[in-house]
Amino acid sequence: MPPEEDKGALERMREGLYASKAAPSVTPDTLIPASAPVARGWDQAPAPTLIDRTKPRMPLAVKFFIGALLFFLVAGSLTAAYLIWGSGSISDEHVDILVDGPTTSASGETVTLLITVQNRNPVAIDVSNLGIDYPPGTRDADDPDKELTHQNFDVGTIEAGGGFTQTVRATLFGSENQKLSIPMRVEYETENSNATFQKSEPFDITITTSPLSVNATSIKETSSGQSVTFSLAVRANSTEPIENVALSAQYPYGFTVTNTSIQSRNSGTFFSLGTLEAGEEKRFTVTGTLAGVNDDTRVFNWSAGTSKDAESGKLDLAYASAVSEIGITRPFIEVALTVDGDTSAKPVIEAGKRVGAQVNWKNTLPTSILDAKISVKLSGAALDPYEVSSGDGFFQSGDMTILFDRDTSRGLRELAPGDTGVGQFSFASLDGDALANLSKQEITLVVSVAGRRLSESGVSESLSSILTRTVKVATGFTFDSRAVRTQGPFENQGPWPPTVGVPTTYTIQLTAENTVNEVAGASATMTIPSYVTYTGLATPADGSVVYNEASRTITWNIGSLPAHGKKDAAFQVSLTPSISQQGDSPTLISAQKVTGTDRFTQAPVGLTAPAIDIRTHRDPAYQSSFGQVQ
Which residues pair with 508 in a beta bridge? Predict the structure, then answer.
């Protein structure tokens, strides 16, 4: 057994575990009295201890990642800069279209533009086309008759940093203060590229003055039904002649054109003025009647410009415009004019026939009208000055005026509110032969009314108004019909005088004759009785004479008959008398109804010729016994 001090720790632990009485493992503490020092005053606080805040070191992998990211950003930036500024690629932002020219111009002036195409790209460009589009109405500066709509120029190659210059001249037209845009564009390609690039740039020019100006003057107020005259002036302001100048009018509802001093189209709404030289002015008038309600205002629009075709009746380009406003007021004296029983604005009378006329008046004011005067002035080449009768008025032959005043009508000394009156007169036109050489078969009647009233303040005020009527002379259209046996284009057969039961033929001759105005769409219609047969022979052979067997109607389509014109026609009929007609004079054709339209007056032409029987008085071989059936 080894000594105790030589036993290992493991052995001693084993012996302790298996011993019958365990030895105590803890040595009891022995208390030893001690005294602790006690402080007798305040000690100084110790200095604070510093904490080490040094950041931890960045890992090497993170540093590597950040460095790689910065490298790629710098490389990308350098590559982009190289592609944009340092390589051979191009941009349309580096192609400039520069225009040196005026930004304002008078309409009709020739404008010169210096166009420069600059290439700021680092490579050359091949420009295939420089295109210029001009606004409508532009003219070639070297050929004013030629319209200029587009120009193309071949440019070719423009080196890097180089340019191309082209000068163009054009005559521009437009209305005052109108902005005209002239688009320009270039199309180009680059070497080793199939792509076509385009650069566009507009150039704007403002028109300071219009090539045309229009001025319209008229009265500011009128009464309903009164005549209104507009004085119009169209002036060329350009330095070059302007062709195909025209004026277009837009009239308000209730206005009817009665006369124009120059030829017009489309019911007086379009006037072709031809070519105006520089500074030239053309003047003309438009007269019409305006109807409307009281206190209404009517607006008239006038536009001056050019038309491609004088026959078109419309403007293609409008350069200037004017507006006229006329107020409709209640007339202080209502006036009505009646001609041959016609109260319309355009009465029609027969040539050479005396017609009666009367003027009616009424005071419409709430106050009396003193010393009223109503005058009727007659004029026109168609008037027969020796056939004017003043009736109950006074005729002033010096100026062809019939006057109704306080001396001829007592009621005109003072017209109380609502008072009425009437004046009568008569006149006539020249006959057909005298009218033959006149360009217009018209008579104009102008009724003027004047008077004075006391205003609410007691001051005397003058009043006046005018009424105009244009009387047109109708053509003298005549129609003649007759039956013959021994004359005419056909050979007639059968007994003469006619015999019961035996056919006898007659020739019916028709003549239409005209005097002063052209007649359009004229025709004559008649019927034949059951005992008369249409033989089918007719002249002229143009088919103008037509027979309808169902209605037994014969129609002669006369058509258009010019002034002083004459047309003839003839056809043959056959009569087979019955015994009941023995001793009688049977009718061959019924009364003939003739119709047509007078082109000048636009009035219908109508007359009726009497029926024709077998009494052929106008045949030179006719005897009285030949006029009855035997």
Answer: 483, 571
- Total Cβ atoms within 10 A of residue 240: 17
Neighbours of 620 (CB within 10 A): 9
- Round to whole Å and give the CA distance between 416 and 412: 9
Q: Which residues contact 575 (CB under 8 A, 6 or more apart)?
A: 494, 498, 503, 504, 505, 506, 531, 532, 533, 586, 588, 614
CA 156 to chain CA centroid, Å, is 47
3-state secondary structure of 381: coil
What pLDDT was estimated at residue 126?
85
- What gap in Å lies between CA 575 and CA 585, rounded to an integer? 11
Q: Which stretches of 408-504 are DSSP H helices?
A: 432-435
CA torsion sign, 337 to 339 to 343 to 346? negative
How many Cα neighbours within 13 Å face the side chain of 497? 20
How far, in Å, CA of 22 to CA of 15, rounded? Answer: 9
What's the residue count for the chain?
A: 630
- The DSSP 8-state label assigned to residue 579 in this structure reads G
CA–CA gap between residue 101 and residue 111 (Å, rounded): 8
Q: Is the pLDDT score of 559 beyond 80?
A: yes
Give the residue from 409, 470, 564 showing the smallest Cα distance to 257. 470
216-273 confidence digits (pLDDT tens): 999 888 877 777 899 999 999 877 788 889 999 999 999 999 999 999 888 889 999 9
- What Å distances lie between residue 458 and 101, 413, 449, 455, CA to CA? 68, 19, 22, 5
Phi, psi of 385 (to 5 degrees): -65, -15
Distance from C-alpha of 255 to C-alpha of 269, rounded to nearest angstrom: 11
- Does residue 507 contact residue 484 with C-beta atoms inside 8 Å? yes
The 10s digit of each residue's pLDDT in 71-121 is 777 666 655 544 444 444 567 788 899 999 899 888 778 899 999 999 888
Distance CA 444, CA 114 (A): 62
Q: What pLDDT shows up at residue 147?
A: 86
